[in-house]
Amino acid sequence: MKLTVFGATGGIGREIVRQALDAGHEVTAVVRDPARFTVTGPRLEVFRSDLSDPEALRPAVAGRDAILSGLGARLLADAGVATRLTRSVLWAMEAAGTRRLLVVSAAPVGPPPERQSLADKAVVAAVSATLRKIYDDLREMEAELAASGTDWTSVRPPRLTDQPVTGHYRRVVGGTPAKGRTIARADVAHAMLAMADDPATVRQGVGIAY
Known about the structure:
Elements: E1 2-6, H1 11-22, E2 26-31, E3 44-48, H2 54-61, E4 66-69, H3 81-96, E5 100-104, H4 118-130, H5 132-147, E6 151-156, E7 159-161, E8 170-173, E9 182-184, H6 185-195, E10 204-209
Parallel strand pairs: 1-2, 1-4, 2-3, 4-5, 5-6, 6-10, 7-9
Antiparallel strand pairs: 8-10
Helix pairs in contact: 1-6, 2-3, 3-5
């Protein structure tokens, strides 16, 4: 497939690029600062952009089979960036006629899992209160996706770790895995690539966790 990856210098985005190249895909990595991007490969194109000009993004998304985005706030002070930057990506995609988009959201944005324990409810409530602005940003981003004409998927992981890829995790389309407390960034990337051509995940939120 021909793929474009936004947020390619982040933990998940970088893993998407690496795994996609290893799988033989052609990848365009959109980055703000190419000096921070260390992945290389013969099927890799690095596209420099700060995403402030949606029109300038059209060449990065035109003719692609799927767009995968790891864009999002890394700090509370960055809350709002996921919605703002995803709007630019959506505009460019719709202008270029590219339809498939997968983005990273978060488990608390989705529905609570079935039979959630009181302890887990308390943990989610505490984390949600602390990161409320970030989760509000992700909810607004998902609303933008739902209002768009793209074939979107919102991938909702719980707490992220930096463990190696395993390829083994649970996935719930339209829901959240029960007792799903962690997942590695590498496995989020693995899941997103696996869903890129999966029609069952189109216009759906997908919870993933170990």
